[in-house]
Amino acid sequence: MSGPRSKRVGIGVRPPANPHAEAWIRQGDADALNKGDLYTARLTLDVTPALRARIKIAAFGRGVTVAELLRGLLEREFPEHRRENTP
């Protein structure tokens, strides 16, 4: 028997890129960057499993994510321009 044979296969030339597909992919990157610009601080808190379940059910019922629901709740409770004498 002769020595081991090389079973390497060449990869070949990359197919030409589809400009529409490339633009769509880049758009997703831009959307992710824009969202990251808005929400750059992470807040972690502990809740009971029952409260977590209620929050998830409420978010699902409203057609939003838990994060969107909680951001809205926090924005309403802590508006950017709050009156001085409000508790």
TrEMBL record:
InterPro entries: Ribbon_hlx_hlx
One GO biological process term: regulation of DNA-templated transcription
Highest taxon listed in the record's lineage: Bacteria
Name by which UniProt lists this protein: Chromosome partitioning protein ParB
Organism: Luteimonas marina
